[in-house]
Specification:
The chain is built from 23 helices and 26 strands. It is an alpha+beta fold. It folds into 4 domains: about 15-165, Reverse transcriptase/Diguanylate cyclase domain (Alpha-Beta Plaits, 2-Layer Sandwich), CATH 3.30.70; about 175-425, TIM Barrel, CATH 3.20.20.450; about 445-570, Beta-Lactamase (2-Layer Sandwich); about 595-695, Beta-Lactamase, CATH 3.30.450.20. Bound molecules: ligand C2E and calcium ion (2 copies).
Length: about 700
């Protein structure tokens, strides 16, 4: 249908934009029915961060990528399709729709584009407009596809979105916001509300977050969730954030002037603000203007700011720190950042949004496990954590129980207007947010959470059963465990099984005390301490005995972290116990029959004979220097002396049991001599139980 020659784009060889529009118009004229009935689609493609690609790989690299993408777009379109590059990294594709394979082909396309460059994820946003009218001209189709394209957010993994008419309504609202925002700022229709933060354990007020509201003269209060994303699209957000910051400083000034004890106030810093290199200086200038101590000001950044490159974020944090501001990570754990990245950022506080963990997808229990993990990680990084979005007392109690006492949420207070907040501060006891713990530099604790670090490698592979335990409120909890630790406890267990099980919850009081005393000794002496404890197995609730050695690696005012090595010694213990048990039974039985028995202390070489020994052999209550003294007095016959010595040497050396037939007394009566050894917790032999029965 299309007759060559059409003008072509010199770089990609695709149709020029004008030719493309002409060709699409031709289709529309020829097949108006098809246009009405969704037989065609207009697609717009927008490569993300193309500027970065040019910077990284040079313009040659950029050109190569454009060529590649152009080729893939043509391939995606297939026969009868038209493709163009509208400008720089923007493309359009017009395709006839013959079946329902387009979504699948789009997924495939996105996958190919994402993996086309080594070490760099190329992302292409796509807007799709499926034709539904015959009277829309090509630029109208493109406008709709472009609008859909602007709805593809970087955070979601969907790379394409289909156009829907509601997008136009939203666009109109956005337009209204844009038209009115300047005036709203001038006329102070933006108001700053404050939401208090509390220490749930002490009830003290520890700070507040400044949250902006738009008090619209006709629409009423507009929530920031509605207008902030719009303002972020056009950089107006920077102005607004500086406005909020100024209002916050003014409030602190007022508190100082009216002799009200101020509390630290946090302001939100948009991802866009961070891209402005002199944002920190502008904030500092405002702070000086109001002359408020920097300790009372904090900024909240979001994990999404990492999307613009960790360098910019690092630079921002560094600058803010130099000026003395505290920097908090908002919505910690929302998924943008790996713990690795977080560790590289020099943060002062983490904010954990309870709502991020609620309901969806995960059951309640999982949420608790994740939460516990996040809180402990934060503590491990030495950062205080503020639980946000806390609506119920149970949530706050739970957070406190896992060591996160700072909460912000409707449970305590909604965001309230400045006046109300000012009155609230006047009435409140004020406390402060303290870092949770002080790391001890015995090992590089921060590296410990890095999955690639040597510490982790050692932890996972070389050390045997190892764990990190937290000591708090006179209880001990496993926080992190390695594979061998799990294996020590039983087969087919998962990490989650073990963390849910918790040895401390499966011990009787006596064993709990043993563990606690050992922990406390390790703290007191700051050295490695050992103990053996019995608990009920996570596999079958049978008693298991574990030898634990523990060493403190981090501490704070209310908790201590231990590095723990364990060995499951249940088998050894049980066979020992069995032997001892047998020995006891044996002794009881021996009273009825012709058996002699005694206890031998391996370290002192003292022997304590039974009553029968004393009566029949004339031995004293305590025989020293055993067996030499017994050989001398011919209790052991000279003939058997040598063999008896060998037997005793094997016991002294730690053999668990030994047996021999040896002649005793001057009458050379053959006796079957048996020994069972008892060991201390380090596995050293301490005592042996001997017995003698006449041999058959
Ligand atoms: P955010 O920074 O995560 O702020 C916390 C949001 O959670 C606030 O919503 C707050 O009202 C809400 N919230 C607090 N406690 C609870 C609770 O117990 N339950 C529930 N359901 N919600 C709770 P808000 O004020 O609507 O703000 C929404 C977002 O808009 C903020 O999320 C922040 O990202 C942004 N924002 C607000 N003010 C500013 C600002 O001045 N500058 C910038 N850049 N962003 C702002
Ligand atoms: Ca915030
Ligand atoms: Ca938040």
């Amino acid at each position: 249908m299309l007759k060559e020659p059409y003008e072509r784009d010199s770089l990609t060889g695709l149709l020029s934009y004008t030719s493309f529009q002409k060709a699409v118009a031709l289709y529309a004229d020829i097949d108006p029915k098809g246009m009405e009935n969704g037989k065609y689609a207009m697609l717009c493609f927008n490569l993300q961060r193309f500027k970065v690609i040019n910077d990284l790989f040079g313009s040659d690299g950029g050109d190569k990528l454009l060529l590649f993408v152009a080729g893939q777009i043509e391939k995606l379109g297939g026969e009868g399709s038209l493709a163009t590059r509208t400008h720089s990294d923007h493309f359009c594709l017009f395709v006839p729709i013959r079946d329902d394979s387009l979504p699948r082909r789009l997924d495939e396309f996105s996958r190919i584009i994402e993996n086309c460059a080594p070490d760099f994820e190329v992302i292409c946003h796509i807007g799709v407009y499926v034709t539904n009218r015959s009277d829309i001209r090509p630029d109208g189709m493109i406008a709709r596809a472009l609008l859909a394209c602007s709805f593809v957010k970087e955070s979601v993994d969907k790379r394409y979105i289909y156009y829907h008419t509601s997008m136009r309504t939203q666009l109109l609202l956005e337009q209204e916001i844009i038209n009115n925002m300047g005036k709203a700022l001038e006329e102070e229709h933006f108001k700053v509300y404050y939401q208090s933060q509390y220490n749930h354990t002490t009830g003290q007020l520890v700070g507040a977050e400044a949250l902006v509201r738009w008090l619209h003269p006709t629409r009423g209060i507009i929530s920031p969730g509605v207008f902030i994303p719009v303002l972020e699209k056009n950089n107006f957000i920077v102005k607004l954030d500086l406005f909020v910051f100024e209002k916050t400083c003014a409030l602190l000034r007022r508190m100082m002037d009216e002799k009200v004890q101020p509390v630290p106030l946090s302001v939100n810093v948009s991802r866009l603000d961070i891209l402005y290199p002199d944002m920190p200086e502008q904030m500092e200038a405002i702070r000086r203007k109001y002359d408020v101590p920097v300790e009372w000001l904090r900024v909240e950044i979001t994990e999404s700011a990492m999307l613009d490159g960790i360098e910019k974020l690092t630079y921002f944090i560094e600058k803010m720190h130099k000026l003395g501001f505290n920097v908090e990570m908002d919505d910690f754990g929302s998924g943008y950042s790996s713990l690795n990245m977080l560790k590289n950022l020099d943060l002062d506080t983490l904010k954990l949004d309870m709502r991020l963990l609620s309901d969806e997808g995960s059951n309640k229990n999982n949420g608790a496990v994740i939460l516990t993990g996040l809180v402990r990680m934060a503590k491990w990084l030495g950062l205080p954590i503020i639980g946000e979005g806390v609506e119920h007392k149970e949530q706050a109690d739970f957070l406190a129980s896992i060591g996160c006492s700072y909460v912000q949420g409707f449970l305590y207070s909604r965001p309230i207007p400045e006046e109300e907040f000012f009155e609230l501060v006047k009435r409140q006891r004020v406390g402060e947010i303290k870092p949770p713990m002080q790391l001890i530099e015995k090992m590089n604790s921060a590296q410990f959470w890095n999955p690639m670090s040597i510490e982790t490698l050692i932890f996972n592979n070389y050390v045997g059963g190892a764990a990190v335990m937290e000591y708090r409120n006179r209880r001990l909890d496993l926080v992190r465990i390695n594979k061998k630790f799990i294996q020590e406890l039983g087969e087919n267990l998962t990490e989650e099984d073990v963390l849910k099980w918790q040895p401390f919850d499966n011990m009787d009081e006596q064993n709990k005390n043993i563990l606690l005393e050992t922990a406390e000794r390790a703290i007191r002496t700051d050295s490695e301490q050992e103990c053996e404890t019995w608990s009920l197995s996570p596999v079958n609730k049978e008693p298991i005995c574990v030898r634990i050695s523990m060493r403190m690696i981090a501490n704070s005012s209310d908790n201590v972290m231990f590095y723990i090595l364990i060995r499951n010694i249940t088998k050894e213990k049980n066979s020992q116990l069995e032997a001892l048990q047998n020995e006891k039974l044996f002794r009881a039985a021996s009273e009825q029959v012709n058996i002699y028995y005694w206890e031998y202390d391996i370290r002192t070489k003292e022997m304590k004979p039974c009553f029968r020994c004393m009566r029949d052999l004339g031995l004293p209550k305590l025989v020293c220097n055993y067996p030499e003294s017994a050989i001398e007095s011919h209790v052991i016959s000279p003939k058997g002396a040598e063999r008896y010595r060998v037997l005793m040497q094997s016991i002294d050396a730690g053999l668990a049991s030994a047996e021999a037939v040896i002649p005793l007394t001057d009458d050379h009566i053959p006796f079957r001599i048996r020994y069972t050894t008892e060991f201390d917790k380090d596995g050293n032999p301490i005592r042996a139980y001997g017995s003698a029965v006449p041999a058959e």
